[in-house]
Structure formats: C-alpha cells, structure tokens
Amino acid sequence: MTAMASPSLSAASEEQEIALECRNVGKDYFRHNGERVRVVREVDLKLRKGGFLCVLGPSGCGKTTLLNMVAGFEQTTEGDILVGGKPVNGPGPERGVVFQSDTALFPWLTVRENIEYGLRIKGISKAERRKRADEWIEQVGLTQHTSKFPGELSGGMKQRVQIARVLASDPEILLMDEPFAALDAQTRNYLQQELSELCRKSGKTVLFITHDIQEALMLADHIIVMARAPEKNIKAELHVQMPYPRQRMNETFAKLYNRLMDEIDNPFKGSVRSL
Amino acid sequence: MKTRKVTRWKPAALLGSLAFAVLWQLAAWISGPAFLPGPVAVIKLFFVQLTTPGYLGTVLASYQRVLVGWGIGSLVGMVGGILMGRYASLGQFLYSPIQFFRVIPAIAIVPILVIWLGVGETIKYVIIGYGVALVVAVNIADAVQRVAQVRLQAARSMGAGPIRIFWGVLVPSVMPEVLKGVRGSLAFAFMSIVGIETLAAQDGVGKMIWNARVLHQTDVAILGIVTLGLMGVLADLLVQALFRLFGYRFMMRR
C-alpha cells in the first residue's frame, strides 16, 4: 500500500453512484485557553453506494469528529459534505447513526418500542411499524427479547438493538462510531460477522469508524487511515479485495494487518528506550 | 440505576424494631410513665384516640397540608428544574438566588409569611411547597444536564424535532431522578409541617405535639411523634405503589 493522494480513487468507483462525498473538510476546536486547534484537516473521500468504508485511526485523530459532521451533529469549519449529492445541513433520517455507548438507547422503551421509534416519527401506521420492527428483531436475533427493556439486556444485545433501530428506518447510509469497541472480544467477533452479512444482504452503504485494524479488515472493502497532526489527516488508503465472509487466520489478512499496523501512528514511538 | 424495590421486612429489621421497643419500655419503667410513657401506653392511647373524631381530624388536617404542599412543590420543582437544566442561561440566572434560599429553612420565613398571608391554609402549602420545590428543582436541573448526549443525537438523527425531543426523550430520561426527588422530598414535607403547625395553625399533628407541652401530656406528645412517623411510612408506601403502577418503565436499569 502506498500513501497515495486521496482524490485518485480507483476508476471503478467513479462510475458508480456516490453516496457520500467529503470535499476538503476541516474542523477547528477551541481549547479551554482559547487556542485554536484543527482536528480534521483537508479530508477528501468518496463512498460509493453499497460500499463499506472504514475510517481507521488512533484516538484523537479526528475520526469521530468526521462522523459527527457527516451525521450533521457538528458543523464543518471548512469544506463540504454531500450525501446523495445534497449538502449536509443538520441531522437527517437518511443517515442512521449507531453509537458506541448503549446510553443512546431509550431505557424506558422495550426492544420493540426502541426499534419502532424512527418509524413512529415518520408517521408509519402501528401495524406496519410492528411488522417492520419484528422483521429487524428477527434479523438481529432478538426475537426472544422483544418486550424486554434495554437494562435487561447484555452489551452485545443492546448494540444489536441499536443496529436494528437504525436499519428499521431504512437510511441511505449507516454511520457507525466504534459500535463494538465496548464489547468483549467474543461478542465483537460475532457482531462483526453478523453486521457484515446484514450489510451484504441489504446492500447498505456504511461509514464505519474504528481504531481496530482487525475489525476494519473483517468488514471494509475500503479503508482510510487517519493520523494526528502534523501528519496528513488521511495518511493512507487501501482497497480490500478479500472475499466475504472473511477469515482472520490467513496469509492475506496477516499481510494487510501488518501493513496497516505500520501506517497507524504511535504517538509514543521511540519514547521507550531499549534496555 | 437499579430498579427500585420496596425494602422488605426481613427478620433483622423486625428484630431491630423489637429491640427498640423493649429498650423504650425498660426506660419507661425506670423513669416512670409521667416522664417517659412506654410503647404499651402509647399504643393504648393510640387505640383510644382512634375512636375520637378529634385525633382523626388532626391527622387528616396535617395529611392534607403535606400532600397538597408536596404536590404543588413537586410540580413547580419539576417544571423549574427541567427548564433550568434545558436552558443554561435560566439556570445561571437562578443559580445565586437558589443557593441563597437553599440554606434558609422554611421555618425562618414563617413569620414574614404570616404577616403577608395570615394563618390560613395557604401559608402551609407555601411553606411545604417551598422546601420541596427547591430540592426537586436542583436535582432535576442537574439530571437534565447529565442526559447522555448520544441519546439526544440518536433522536435527532431519526428525525425528532425539538418538541418531540423535549417530551419524548429529555423528560423520560430524567424520570428516574424525578421519581427519586419527589419521593425523597416527601420526608422534607413532613419535616416542614411540624414547624408551620406549631407556629401558625389551630390544628394538625404539629399543634397536637406542641399543645401537649402545656398540660405536661408526655404520652400525647409521643403519640404525635409516632403518628408523624406512621403518616410518613404510609405516604411513602403509597407513592411507591403509584410509581410501580405507572412509572415502572422509568425505573428500569440503564
């Protein structure tokens, strides 16, 4: 993999419909002392319809901020974000967000009621709501837990509810901010496989934020490596050709893993002296 | 937050109550019933009084004051707290006055309120409501600010507008704190009632306790105290039952 300039994406993706495009996106924050810090810098990216793009990077590289801007929770300081060709101006139901924290669920609503929430806002009839919710409940394997409250579920089950809640509203793009980061390794593996399958079946477009190289390699057809300043924000990118369902323990996977490992910057590199 | 359950009467709790009663009875025997009437004497008096309209009227008068004052105070506190939490500038605007009034006990404002409002029922509601509203408002304002940002974002990204977010997400999110605050402030209401009835009432349990002093009726005074405790326990059980009936989904663990 070479750290190629981001606009030169493969010719194949140019022909396909673009679901999400970031053009020279930048974001400034002010620190407590008033100092201006640029967290997201000159980000250009294109996500084709039906694609699975992972943004991979260490904490503090601005990847969550990027997702928040795409979601419309935060405004860009610079540049444009286009979803389906239209500029993003605040949150919208065509972009469904899955959060890392399960506090994003509504603890006073049952599993089914949580999943119906977006449909209720859209004004969909009760019978139709229930039908669609139950379909997604089955898809994520929670049929036994339909009338439980989130507080009665495990962490993995809660993330399944979040995923079903978003998918039930049928968004054009799924925005996922490290949704499996707080889960144990076993559950995380299961959910990665299930998500991958679910996305391929439904043809959903996904923007997935993670700091986990294995996770990116399991899920994405396209990986963007983000780095902290002063390095270029999009440091490298990689098109993953491995067929789905993917396996961790093979040579291609290991090679790609090592290459990405080298690309991800370690802020403490060189600070540990050899004894 | 864990689902709240009624504390059950476990053997140890029963034993504790018994030990307390036995010690009390012993102390009563040693000191003589005129100085300290024992539990048996008080229970006897309780059953005698139960049949008199005077005692029941006294209890009902106090109960009505506590419940009305507490209800009004809770409502004002809830609305005020949610608004203060939601609109930071309002919270800041009210911060100093609230900190100021928080340390002033209800009893301290009784004299001035007697001048303004007289000694009718209004003053009782105001005094009880005052303390309750402050406690509830401060707790809820804090809870509103601690509502998970991602939950609000999730609702927004699913297309919820400001009104839906307020009523459908913010208010239910703080319901556990509302219920906790409202229940906790019930004790506060009972503490205020004695003060206000002592100073500015013709009847009520507070007055009954205070009047007992004049005739040296130690048993009546203690019956008054016991009555207050029983009233509080009963009201708390009632509130808990109501919460379980109507608010169970808001008491779910997060």
Description:
Chain A: InterPro entries: AAA+_ATPase, ABC_transporter-like_ATP-bd, ABC_transporter-like_CS, ABC_transporter_ATP-bind, P-loop_NTPase. Chain A: GO terms for molecular function: ATP binding; ATP hydrolysis activity. Chain A: Keywords: ATP-binding, Nucleotide-binding, Transport. Chain A: This is ABC transporter ATP-binding protein. Chain A: It comes from Paenibacillus sabuli. The complex is a heterodimer of chains A (275) and B (254). Chain A has 275 residues and is α/β, with parallel strands linked by helices. Chain A has two domains: 162 residues, P-loop containing nucleotide triphosphate hydrolases (Rossmann fold, 3-Layer(aba) Sandwich); 67 residues, no CATH class. Chain A contains eight helices and ten strands. In chain A, the strands form two sheets. Chain A has a six-stranded mixed β-sheet with strand order 6-7-8-3-9-10, with helices on both faces. Chain A has a four-stranded antiparallel β-sheet with strand order 2-1-4-5, covered by helices on one side. Chain A starts with 10 loop residues before the first helix and ends in a 12-residue tail after the last helix. In chain A, 44% of the residues are buried. The radius of gyration of chain B is 22 Å and the shape is globular. With 254 residues, chain B is mainly α. Chain B has a single domain, classed as MetI-like (MetI-like fold), CATH 1.10.3720.10. Chain B starts with 10 loop residues before the first helix and ends in an 8-residue tail after the last helix. In chain B, α2 packs across α10 and α8 packs antiparallel against α10.
